Amino acid sequence: MSVKVGIDFGTSNSGVAVYDGARVRLLPVDPKNVLPEVIKTVLYITRDYRSLIGQEAVENYYRDNVNRQRRYVKQWVGEIDVRGADMHYVRDIYVYVDELKPGRLLQYLKTALRKEGYEGTQIFERYYSVGDLAKTYLSLLKQRAEGVLGEPIEAVTLGRPVKFSESPEQDHKAQETLRSAAQAAGFKEVDFELEPIAAALDYEQSIKKPQNVVIFDFGGGTLDIAVMRLGEPNKRKVYASGGVDIAGSDFDRAVIEKRMLSHFGLGQVKLQPEIMSMIHAIPDWMALPEMGTPINKNILDKAIQAGISPVRMKALQGLIYNDLAFTFYNRVETGKIALSNNGATIINLEDKDIALWELYTRHQFETDIYHYLIDVEKVLLDTITKSGLEPGSIDAVVKTGGSSSIPLFTEMLIRIFGQEKVKQSSSFTSVVAGLAIKAKMQG
Amino acid sequence: MSSFSHKIDEWMKEAEARPESAVMIVKLVARRLRELTERNEELLTENIALQNGTRVEEYQKRIAHLEYQLDLLKRRFGADESLLTKLPTAPPEISTLSLLIYNSYGRILRMEINAEAQTLGHLADETLQNSEQPRLLAVPSNEEVLLLFTSGRVSTCAVDSISMVEIGGEWIWERAALDDEPRAGEFLACIMPVSRLPLSEFFMQVSRRGCVKKTVTSMAQSILGNHYLGKGALQTSDQPFDIALCQKKDRFAFVTIEGKLLGLDVDEPSYSAEDRIKLTASDYVIASFVPHAEESMLFVTQTGKVINREHDSLELSKSALAKGHALIPPSRLEQGVRFIGAASVRETDRIAVLDSQGKLNIHEAGSVTGAGSIEAEGLTGVAVSIGVIRAETWNGANP
Questions:
Q1: Contact, B239 vs B284, CB < 8 A?
Q2: What residues pair up with B20 in beta bridges, in sequence order?
Q3: Dist CA B169 CA A247 (whole Å)
């Protein structure tokens, strides 16, 4: 007999849980992680097309890539027909490919589902569509969960944000891509639940009497809000839901843009457009790895020799050519998380040619992301208004997701609803727990 | 400067908003100050080394080494005389051919050989040292060689800096040169000439248990500078056995004592050590070589029997679980036949053979492969080691 599980396919972290009618069991699908019930949503595909997920992917990526040898070879990728009024010729197109690259690490797979214009990526000789990437990840996650449970899993309730995208077509496309990926991964039955509603189902387990609840699910990729009546399973009601594409990855990007780029030459390099484009690619996790071409290396070498901000150019070269991008993004994220508890932290990256050190305070962080606070508050108040309830008639505001711990947003919730109403649920597991409950209800 | 002042203003604002942050900021800044002080001291030390010339000497040595390599290449590939006169090079040396006999304790016997020599002399000492047979290597005397130790350490030395023993004499290991003594716990794995290094793409290493590791030669400067190439073995009980320089399209082959031959396309293995063959507990690698077109593969057993195979017959394996191609049937193995050497040779090459009595003789490769065995009168005991003397080095050394 097969079981039905809940899967939270998150932007930064994922999880699998099962509910037996009395108790939610979070499955330890990543034994190498500090929290084995939480698995990083990262996928590492090696040159021989082995796929790894979670901490294992990260470890293999570090082992194989950091400070490795590189060698670029010119590879034919196609040809372009050039037609003019009286001429026609075909031109070969080449790209430089690092033939020693041992694998490719992919993160933000969920963001890729909703990213307009992003259809997939070439990994060595194979093309992986967005659906292929999600399928590969879900398939491995399923295998791990089956390993823990010791029985096959054929049905799943997958979480989804309230809005994958503002565009209804893109939103529908993202959900159907995820559905197809789950089916291709081996789930015969696939249904969806909104992530904030799943978090609400988890919260409902802890209350004794009916309440009007705001779920504030603020994760790595999106903010999802649901206003619900909870406490009586038969009279459960969703008054309103809303969301916006603002979350942890945007804050990381803001930190990099405002605080890190000067370490790589921003402000010092002005008349070299090629170098400027490399610097501005740093916050973009998809664009940065593509910068590692021999032509760019040559440009940076020349700048260093010409004495154009040589220390920073060397650091930029190190970041791009020593495969330090993933480490760098992690350091920024770690610094951001530290500021939820401390007033100051250090973001540093010490490696060959890089000696990045930045003392970063909560005041600076809040200044850097303040414009997001205005957008978040607007979406929250709009959703409350849509629900027909007044903030005063809300009994509890349940925070979940990593970004919900950022003090700036907690203070906003306290300001609107009052200190006693703002409650923190488990940041990384409440959604998956709720999805497991939902799976049982439907199963 | 102004941006730094702005940063300090922002830190102050944090301290004003949350006074408890002030302590943390001071602690973090103080820690950074300590790190920078230490770093400053390191840089000052480096600066002193630059000023007093220590670094200059180091770089001069490196430059001299590179010039030497360049000189070797010019002579080897016959660079145009007019070009040579324009460049400041060392006076031309008359090259002779050296035959090295070395053991795992790092002892190296060198003798300069000539075209007439057939019976070279006698190793009046234990041929087996540390349960390992001595290895033979023929190399022009003006070359440089790389020594690979079982710890993964490497060092280089000029062949002509190794003291010589006389042809026709009796040699003992104690009198052999000890150019770079193995350190505690390590043994000398092999010696390889390095003059072709700038023209090669990869170092190919093979371990005793058939683990293969490829390293790009563009890393050579760092490898030689750090004196470390790596063991190229996965198991701790395993150790490096041999190393060769390869081009991109080359093949690489190795042979085990029980006669298993495994061929690889050099492009194929990854850049980390990986097992390439499944060996029985008693089996291990005894020879490796880079087979080239127009050469044939020669395999020698301890009884002096020679198996000769065409270059094209080498089957290339892609699996880590390969068992290798058996050179002899199992019944012959049961009779005690074991392999002691293998090489890729041309008919015009010569083969130096060391037998268990310590006798060292030179044979024509063509006659050995033709007869199917090493001449009976030349072999007084069982053969223990062979080395190939390339025709081109022979001719070059004896103009």
A1: no
A2: none
A3: 83
Query: Could A344 and B21 be called an inter-chain contact, meaning their C-beta atoms sit closer than 8 Å?
Result: yes
Picking from A363, A367, A370 by the largest number of B CB atoms within 10 A of its own CB, the best residue to mutate is A363
Min Cα–Cα distance to chain A from B271, Å = 8
CB of B10 within 8 Å of a chain A CB? The answer is yes
Partner A contacted by B13 (CB < 8 A): yes
Distance (Å, whole) CA B63 – CA B102: 30
- Looking at 3.30.70.580, 3.40.50.300, 1.10.10.10, 2.120.10.90, the CATH number of the domain B97-397 comes to 2.120.10.90
Q: Which of A69, A102, A343 sits opposite B21 (nearest CB)?
A: A343
Instruction: Give the side-chain half-sphere CA count within 13 A for B395.
Output: 6
d(CA A346, CA A324): 18
Structure-token match 């037998």, residue found = B355
- Whether the per-residue pLDDT at A383 is higher than 80: the answer is yes
Which residues in chain A are contacts of B29 at CB distance < 8 A? Answer: 359
Separation of CA A83 from chain center: 43
The domain segmentation of chain B, as residue ranges, is: 2-51, 54-86, 97-397
**Distance (Å, rounded) from C-alpha B153 to C-alpha B147?**
8
Instruction: Pick the more confident residue, A77 or B187.
Output: B187
Give CA–CA dist A426/A203, Å, rounded.
10
Tokens representing A356 are 């990045």
B18 with A359: Cβ contact below 8 A: no
Q: Cα separation of A204 and B67, whole Å?
A: 78
B241 phi and psi angles, rounded to 5 deg: -115, -45
| pLDDT, tens only, A168-217 | 888 999 999 999 999 999 999 999 999 999 999 999 989 989 999 999 99
Residue B91 pLDDT greater than 80, yes or no: no
Question: How would you label B286-324 residue by residue, b for 16+ Cβ within 10 Å and e otherwise?
Answer: bbbbbbeeebbbbbbbbebbbbebeeeebeebeeeebeb
Measure B17 CA to nearest chain A CA, in Å: 8
End-to-end CA distance of chain B: 70
> Do the chains contact at A344 and B32, CB–CB below 8 Å?
no
Burial of B109 (0-12, 13-18, 19+ CB in 10 A): buried
Residue A403 or B82, more confident: A403
The two tokens of residue A387 are 């629900």
Q: How far apart are CA A122 and CA A128, in angstroms?
A: 6
